[in-house]
């Protein structure tokens, strides 16, 4: 009578142990600590199982390679990755690939010189931010009957203008905060303001599709710029040319001759509302940010887009050009929502991480302090050079307002860069000042 042969017990023991470990691993406690020896054995077994077929080449490939000889030493003329800047514009990773295949298990257990060099490279690129004094709320001005959507400071730094949902443009004394003048003429929310540094003109735009030029000597409208098909959300004056650029909900930016009211260009290409536009006297002379999540840099002479930046994931609502540095920043919603770009090609520089909200407005002063204000009332001050936040505040709605009316819609620094003016959903204008050291 033949006796049945029992299966080998070793595989069963292994399967049982593996299953037991999986059961108890789901609810670990302090007593379940892997000892170093078992970890080392488990890792060696895993490496053996996964790489045993790759230790040696197949016979056909081995015949092509020729006889296996000792590994040659690294050529001293070849360089490893070095930390810090090099003479070349980009660092090159130079590696020597030996034709002789060698298997080195030690690479799995010890850190290589490559990883050490990369770690050193990361640490040496850390830039220390410049110290900036903190900012403090010093004045709250009430007077508008709607959301304050636009603010502009005149070049002499004596007064500033605000526009709001009550369709009125108000002129305020910057030193005392007193109301000096109210200008009526728009029939819908005023969304953009700009004061000309070379003419006694104030330019305004609004959701009534109108762009208007106000003579500040007579305090009346002297020009209308007709052409937008929908609400106009932003406008900007060229620093050296008699040119006005406006942008709005018709997904276009329009370039106007300030004096003749002629429409020079229609900058088309965006597929969503153009929320902000900025001008500068060097290329690119016009920059637009749109709800289609793109930023476009325009060739003003040709009226065409030079570059389209598609890094943002959500609608771009704010732009800020640095007054002395050849760069600008853009803001949108979500994480890493503020980005810095280098002109003229629009090369990406860095992210400003930390303002996790819908950024509506941004401003930069000559001391490289950047401000960002968001829909939820959060305010952040940044070191523009490094993208480091050095102060965060919360906008406090005025008494009688809803908690949801803490949003910040517009901002600007005064000509000295030591005072910041913001307008928000609680219908007030707030002035922040840099604290003396």
Automatic annotation (TrEMBL):
GO terms for cellular component: catalytic step 2 spliceosome; precatalytic spliceosome; Prp19 complex. Pfam families: WD40 (PF00400). InterPro entries: Prp46/PLRG1-like (IPR045241), WD40/YVTN_repeat-like_dom_sf (IPR015943), WD40_PAC1 (IPR020472), WD40_repeat_CS (IPR019775), WD40_repeat_dom_sf (IPR036322), WD40_rpt (IPR001680). GO terms for biological process: mRNA splicing, via spliceosome. SMART domains: WD40 (SM00320). Keywords: mRNA processing, mRNA splicing, Nucleus, Repeat, Spliceosome, WD repeat. It is found in: Nucleus. The keyword Nucleus applies. The keyword Cell membrane does not apply. Involved in pre-mRNA splicing and required for cell cycle progression at G2/M. PANTHER family: PLEIOTROPIC REGULATOR 1 (PTHR19923:SF0), WD40 REPEAT PROTEINPRL1/PRL2-RELATED (PTHR19923). Associated with the spliceosome. Belongs to the WD repeat PRL1/PRL2 family. This is Pre-mRNA-splicing factor PRP46. It comes from Mycena chlorophos (Agaric fungus). The lineage of its organism: Eukaryota, Fungi, Dikarya, Basidiomycota, Agaricomycotina.
């Amino acid at each position: 009578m033949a006796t049945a042969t029992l299966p080998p017990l070793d595989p069963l023991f292994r399967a049982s142990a593996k299953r037991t470990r999986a059961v108890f691993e789901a609810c670990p406690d302090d007593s379940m600590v892997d000892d170093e020896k078992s970890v080392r054995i488990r890792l060696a077994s895993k490496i053996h199982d996964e790489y045993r077929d790759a230790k040696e080449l197949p016979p056909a490939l081995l015949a092509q390679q020729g006889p296996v000889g000792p590994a040659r030493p690294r050529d001293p003329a070849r360089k490893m990755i070095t930390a810090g800047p090099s003479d070349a514009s980009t660092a090159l990773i130079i590696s020597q690939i030996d034709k002789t295949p060698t298997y080195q298990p030690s690479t799995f257990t010890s850190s290589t010189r490559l990883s050490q060099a990369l770690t050193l490279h990361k640490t040496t690129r850390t830039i220390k931010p410049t110290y900036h004094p903190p900012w403090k709320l010093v004045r709250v001005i009430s007077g508008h009957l709607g959301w304050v959507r636009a603010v502009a400071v005149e070049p002499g730094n004596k007064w500033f203008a605000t526009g709001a949902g009550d369709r009125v443009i108000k002129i305020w004394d910057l030193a005392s905060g007193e109301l000096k003048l109210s200008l009526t003429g728009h029939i819908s929310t005023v969304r953009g303001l700009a004061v000309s540094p070379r003419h006694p003109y104030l330019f305004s735009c609004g959701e009534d599709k109108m762009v208007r030029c106000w003579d500040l000597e007579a305090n009346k409208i002297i020009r209308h710029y007709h052409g937008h098909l929908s609400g106009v959300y932003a406008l900007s004056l060229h620093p050296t040319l008699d040119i006005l650029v406006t942008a709005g909900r018709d997904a276009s930016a329009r370039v106007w001759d300030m004096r003749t009211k002629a429409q020079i260009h229609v900058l088309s290409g965006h597929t969503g509302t153009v929320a902000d536009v900025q001008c500068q006297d060097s290329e690119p002379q016009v920059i637009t940010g749109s709800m289609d999540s793109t930023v476009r840099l325009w060739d003003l002479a040709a009226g065409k887009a030079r570059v389209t930046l598609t890094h943002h994931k959500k609608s771009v609502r704010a732009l800020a050009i640095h007054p002395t540095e050849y760069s600008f920043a853009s803001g949108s919603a979500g994480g890493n929502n503020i980005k810095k770009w280098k002109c003229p090609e629009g090369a990406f520089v860095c992210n400003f991480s930390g303002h996790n909200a819908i950024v509506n407005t941004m401003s930069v002063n000559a001391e490289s302090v950047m401000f960002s204000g968001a829909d939820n009332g959060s305010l952040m001050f940044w070191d523009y050079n490094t993208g480091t936040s050095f102060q965060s505040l919360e906008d406090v709605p005025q008494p009688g307002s809803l908690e949801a009316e803490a949003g910040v819609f517009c901002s600007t620094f005064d000509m000295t860069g030591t005072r910041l003016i913001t307008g928000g959903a609680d219908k007030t204008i707030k002035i922040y000042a840099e604290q003396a050291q």
